[in-house]
Design goal:
Strand content: 25-35%
Radius of gyration: 28 Å
Order of helices and strands: HEEHEHHEHEEH
Structural class: alpha/beta
CATH topology of the domain at 34-140 and 179-225: Rossmann fold
CATH class of the domain at 34-140 and 179-225: Alpha Beta
Strand order of the largest sheet: 1-6-5-4-2-3
Mean pLDDT: 75
Distance between the termini: 66 Å
Number of helices: 6
Low-confidence stretches: 1-31, 145-150
Largest sheet: 6 strands, mixed
Shape: globular
């Protein structure tokens, strides 16, 4: 006759509950990523090759973001054994439309300027990152509201004052969430061909520095997965 041990059942229940709790948190954990890859393409008729010096260019009006993101992407490439360099001090006009207009640099002059800088620093590959679109969503958060039917009885003066104060003087406010759509293009300098392109979406990043690292690792991983270049 098989004896029933209630401790076996309790242990099984505890293990099962723990498993359920873990599984419940798995989707939430993986959904916390702000940046995701939404598109990727590689030129089919081009054989992948290795590159000796890749320049990373971010077209952004914000100098601080430009330096940060270029540095992270270049670092992610170097971690894979690929020589790469941030270009925030090489292409100072990148993303600065007003400066370009002030210096009277039309498209032809700007193209010549870029070619000269590429040749001067001996880049054989260029990874150009640009912000395609930024979408903002504003949401109104209702503040505390005052009701004329607020019951005053049962309150002393300081209790009534403190409660009513925070009802009257707590206004509503707006919060804005931003979604960024970014395109990254990898070019072979010798042929001037577009070798690979990828699009990412970043939703309401809490930290630009943390998101820059995630973005950099994601882009480099995809470039290698697509065999856009070889190590």
């Amino acid at each position: 006759m098989i004896k029933f041990d209630p401790t076996d059942l309790s242990c099984w229940m505890i293990r099962t509950m723990n498993l359920v709790i873990v599984l419940a948190f798995v989707p939430a954990f993986f959904s916390c990523k702000s940046t995701e890859l939404i598109g990727s393409w590689k030129k089919a008729d081009v054989e992948a090759k290795s590159y000796e010096n890749i320049g990373v260019v971010l077209l952004s009006p914000k100098v601080s973001n430009k330096a940060m993101i270029e540095t992270e992407v270049a670092s992610a490439l170097r971690e894979k054994g690929i020589k790469a360099k941030a270009t925030f001090d090489i292409f100072p006009f990148a993303g600065k439309r007003e400066l370009i207009e002030e210096m009277d640099l039309d498209k032809d002059k700007l193209r010549d300027y870029v070619r000269k800088r590429v040749n001067r620093f001996s880049f054989d590959g260029l990874l150009i990152i640009s912000l395609l679109d930024e979408q903002q969503e504003s949401r109104y958060n209702q503040g505390s509201s005052f009701s004329f039917a607020y019951p005053a009885y049962g309150y002393n003066y300081y209790g009534y004052y403190s409660d009513i104060y925070y009802s009257v003087y707590t206004p509503g406010y707006y919060t804005t969430k931003s979604t960024y759509f970014v395109e990254s293009n990898f070019y072979d300098v010798a042929t001037e061909n577009l070798i690979w392109t990828g699009q990412t979406k970043t939703k309401d990043p809490s930290s630009i520095s943390k998101e820059a690292k995630i973005f950099a690792e994601m882009i480099v991983k995809e470039i290698l997965n697509k065999n856009a270049l070889v190590l």
